């Protein structure tokens, strides 16, 4: 039984598992680019108009945390701030749950030592607890600026080192495509935080830097297969679009498995760590990481690989083959056979079948010619 027949009997999940799909990723690249451009414009607009919801570690300020009780809730905490002349317009008051313990966290801008002590005392009285059970933390905005500067320096250093490595290990076109894909992931992830209004904390910054590593890994998996197929298809006249499509279909299942294996632990952090145990730091880290994982998986398929195809099509050996690429059965044949010969055979079989069909319908058969009796001859006059 031929491989084509076995493949045709498999469902979509069977073909996906065996790396025998024939999705035209390069042909749909304009859809991916349109989605990315739309998201980037939305995120840039949000960053310019709304900005980021920076936490106390970046803006500086004071935070109190008091155990929740029948007399202490969000409204009671705001009333304590009002009574002490602390503006509540930008105050962040939230309920935290850790196991069976519930507490109220109040975060405001920087205050004097006298106000911090007075609010702490009033919160303890309002909640009917000892003053030592009300915690107070104060952070200078300079500390947040220092974190931001170090994060930006780390991002630049990471991009430079990654570009050098990929250019040495693969080629400079792949390095540019990978860097653009990583910038795409970070920009959209940060923009989503701005759109939704999530608070940005040091844990969020760590998650954003972690996103870069995952995005790079997913892209390298695809590029490594592209490099192998470029060498394999080298002697044949195969377009770069075909090579990219074949490579992506062959590693699609691996990329999906990697993404799923990374998303599941992050979801457990988000559900168990934040929802059940009330760990706010885990929630901030998990949300940023989850957004980045989804964005990184998307960019490796619809951003990095199509960009590489566009760059490579400018080379002389691919320039004349820029217009056409295989789809459908022809692409499936190339994915399964791992070479251009399969595609040529499909084209040849299709052309032969079309020629035979045309010949059958256009030329009358010999039997049909014999069914008509000959015309009678006219008698000549003598």
Question: Mind explaining what this structure looks like?
Answer:
The strands form two sheets. This protein has a four-stranded antiparallel sheet with strand order 3-4-2-5. Strands 1-6 form a two-stranded parallel ribbon. With 382 residues, it is of the alpha+beta class. It has helices at residues 3-9, 12-17, 29-49, 56-59, 74-83, 113-127, 141-169, 172-196, 202-232, 240-276, 280-312, 316-319, 328-337, 340-362, 366-370, and strands spanning 53-54, 61-67, 92-98, 101-108, 135-139, 199-200. It is elongated and about 80 Å long. The chain is 68% helix and 8% strand. It folds into two domains: 23-52 and 143-319, Multidrug efflux transporter AcrB transmembrane domain (Multidrug efflux transporter AcrB transmembrane fold, Up-down Bundle); 61-139, 2-Layer Sandwich (Alpha-Beta Plaits).
First-to-last CA distance = 75 Å
Q: What's the tally of helices? A: 15
Compute the CA-based radius of gyration: 32 Å
Kindly name the structural category.
alpha+beta
Question: Which residue ranges are poorly predicted, with pLDDT under 50 across at least 5 consecutive positions?
Answer: 1-8, 341-372
Counted up, domains total: 2
Based on DSSP secondary structure assignment, what is the total number of beta strands? 6
**Strand order across the largest sheet:** 3-4-2-5
Nutshell version of this structure?
With 382 residues, this protein is of the alpha+beta class. The protein has helices spanning 3-9, 12-17, 29-49, 56-59, 74-83, 113-127, 141-169, 172-196, 202-232, 240-276, 280-312, 316-319, 328-337, 340-362, 366-370; strands at 53-54, 61-67, 92-98, 101-108, 135-139, 199-200.
